[in-house]
Every structure is written in C-alpha cells, then in structure tokens.
Amino acid sequence: MMITKDMTIGEVVRTAPEKVATLMEFGMGCVGCPSAQAETIEEAAMVHGLDVNALIEALNK
C-alpha cells in the first residue's frame, strides 16, 4: 500500500500498523489520540514542523 500525505494518521495506523514506529521516530507520539484519527499526514507534519515529503518517503520504505 502506498501511503500519501492526504491519508489520515488513523488510516495509516489501521491499515499499516507496522508504520507506527516510523511515525514515532518522527516525533508523532500521539498516533492513538482522537485528533490523529481525522488529521492527515500533511496536517500532522505541519503541526509538528516536519518535512512532509521526508515523512512520506520514510513511511513508504
């Protein structure tokens, strides 16, 4: 499955739980919190001051 920046954190956690470790490595420790269920990867990257392209690349490795 290809992960894209418009997918929600919740969607990634449900469909590719092995990617949680990558999200945590990037400082997204609240992958299970309610806001993460509806927040896109791009939105979360912006909130955390991360490069969304680097995050997407890491998630798709």
List keywords for this structure.
about 60 residues, mainly alpha, 5 helices, globular
Can you describe what's shown?
The chain is an all-alpha fold. It has one domain. The protein is 56% helix and 0% strand. It contains five helices and no strands. It has helices at residues 9-15, 20-25, 34-38, 41-48, 52-59. The longest helix is centred in the C-terminal third of the chain and has 8 residues, at 41-48. The chain is globular and about 25 Å long. The N and C termini lie close together (11 Å). The relative contact order is 0.24.
Beta-strand residue fraction: under 5%
Mean pLDDT: 91
Q: Count all strands and give the number.
A: 0
What's the gyration radius in Å? Answer: 10 Å
- Given the C-alpha coordinates, what overall shape results? globular
Distance from first to last alpha carbon = 11 Å
Question: Brief overview, please?
Answer:
The protein is mainly α and 61 residues long. It has one domain (9-60). It contains five helices and no strands.
Topology:
Layout: H1 9-15, H2 20-25, H3 34-38, H4 41-48, H5 52-59
Protein name: DUF1858 domain-containing protein
Domain DUF1858: 3-56
Pfam families: DUF1858 (PF08984)
